[in-house]
């Protein structure tokens, strides 16, 4: 078992609790083994317990305790948030977010399409089975 | 929550004699306790008693909303079961009261020290290069990286939380 994701300066993480749940933040400094200082787009700088963040595989190269302006600039330059959003994890989150916003009719449409897809798959599977 | 107070007091003036005003920085959980500690320390340092003295001012020093980690050095005097010990301890925190609270917690754990057996001699914010304890200096390395062994739990809505799970949890 080799660890890949570390609590370190520049680590992109997700807040997993509270009002800011789901927001992307960057670790700017480590207070001690349990607390880190984080900031991100739309999240003001704050101290957070490491239990309240989930580490992603992405890291921004920034100096320790960097100022907000430079942080946002570096994030844009290195496209770190974008990379995360394009990863399957990021896509899944965006997907879940979109699903939450659906109206009743849209949910019906999804269910309908899912049924249709299942029908097509089952048909093709049936044919394959018949061949055997 | 621990608070920091600054307390001023003096002997009640009698006649024309000028009385010395004493000022002290006290860490306590509330104002009442802070005043009590003030008298306790003043009695030890000077010949002033509560009955013949008055408190002029109690002010709380609120912590600034800080978002940068700092190093604090604490000099304390601690009455252990077998004698008096002087100690120097270091903590890393965002605020001074946070560091002092850490000290009380740690002293309780390591030495079974109660609040009243610990006298804080001095608390100072210290520069990184002046730090001595490895527990603090370890965090000065800006390339420091450590994994989350216990992982961070995603807090889910209770509605979806069942007694049993089909999947083994991923702990890192």
UniProtKB/TrEMBL annotation, chain A:
GO cellular component: ribosome
SUPFAM superfamilies assigned to the protein according to its UniProt record, in alphabetical order: Translation proteins SH3-like domain (SSF50104)
Alphabetic keyword roster: Ribonucleoprotein, Ribosomal protein
Domain Large ribosomal subunit protein eL14: 44-117
Top-level division of the source organism's lineage: Eukaryota
Protein family (similarity comment): Belongs to the eukaryotic ribosomal protein eL14 family.
Protein's name in the database: Ribosomal protein L14 like protein
TrEMBL record, chain B:
One Pfam family matching this protein: Ribosomal_L18A
SUPFAM superfamilies found in the cross-reference section: RplX-like (SSF160374)
Alphabetic keyword roster: Ribonucleoprotein, Ribosomal protein
Record-linked InterPro entries: Ribosomal_eL20, Ribosomal_eL20_dom, Ribosomal_eL20_eukaryotes
Domain annotation Large ribosomal subunit protein eL20: ranges: 2-124
HAMAP family named among the record's database cross-references: Ribosomal_eL20
Name of the protein in its database record: 60S ribosomal protein L18a
Organism: Aduncisulcus paluster
Lineage per the UniProt record: Eukaryota, Metamonada, Carpediemonas-like organisms, Aduncisulcus
